[in-house]
Amino acid sequence: MGVETHAHLDYKRLDPENLPLVLERAALAGIERIGNVFLGLEAYRANAAAFTAHSKVFFLLGIHPNDSGQSDIRHVSEMASLFAADPNLKAVGEIGLDFYWKDTPPEVQERFFREQLALALEIGRPVAVHSRDAAPETLRILDESGLPGEMILWHCFGGGPDLAVELIHRGYTVSIPGPVTYPKNEDLRRAVAILEMDRLVLESDSPFLTPEPYRGCPNEPAYNVFTAQVVARVKGLETEEVWRVTGANARRFFGLI
């Protein structure tokens, strides 16, 4: 029943021998569908074919804010033809703002963010939003984008209750990653407690953000089960119910069959 909404299975270099093992472990953990996020056109063109034999993997494609400084804005218009040609491309993402890293000027990030939001609106695809140390600016741009809340997924939520209230108010879907399992992340767990179950999904962001008890090792989709267990504890639910509801939410958001 489970859906992994955000993984980078092609990150750096896709190992064709390792991919089936990762997908097998995910299936054994109860994950039926996996969203692989391609960070830019080059990654999609180089690696999408590796997933041809794996029909349960769907795709997201976007220009990450940290990559926008080395990208051509014309790539955004090129993305439109890729989405038209590949029905497995379900969302534009991950896109947004990242002010933690200082390599790309904010104005460049904002231009790419706005252009990709406009693309998503034009082609009728939802978006997966990356926001790091930039929540007020991200929310302002999203508010101005014209995209309805039900088309917006806040990827890798790491905020507290105040940010959770802002996202609830806007009707966004919120993705919970592995750090919710970290003992010191009480603020994140307090946010999860007030977020609505019908707008929650789970993600690994693999190979990053590995949950306990495997923190420090490379992450993979199967480890979402540990994230689900903590969300269930916070919500006072059975893990199976969290697995079922978040999976249904993801299918609805991405239009999965």
Please, could you describe this protein's structure?
- There is one protein chain.
- This protein has helices spanning 19-28, 41-47, 74-85, 106-123, 135-145, 161-170, 186-194, 224-235, 239-254, and strands at residues 2-7, 31-39, 57-62, 89-98, 127-132, 152-154, 173-176, 200-202.
- It is an alpha/beta fold and 257 residues long.
- It has one domain (2-254): Metal-dependent hydrolases (TIM Barrel).
- The radius of gyration is 17 Å and the shape is globular.
- 44% of the residues are buried.
Write the layout of secondary structure elements.
Layout: E1 2-7, H1 19-28, E2 31-39, H2 41-47, E3 57-62, H3 74-85, E4 89-98, H4 106-123, E5 127-132, H5 135-145, E6 152-154, H6 161-170, E7 173-176, H7 186-194, E8 200-202, H8 224-235, H9 239-254
Parallel strand pairs: 1-2, 2-3, 3-4, 4-5, 5-6, 6-7, 7-8
Helix pairs in contact: 3-4, 6-7, 7-8, 8-9
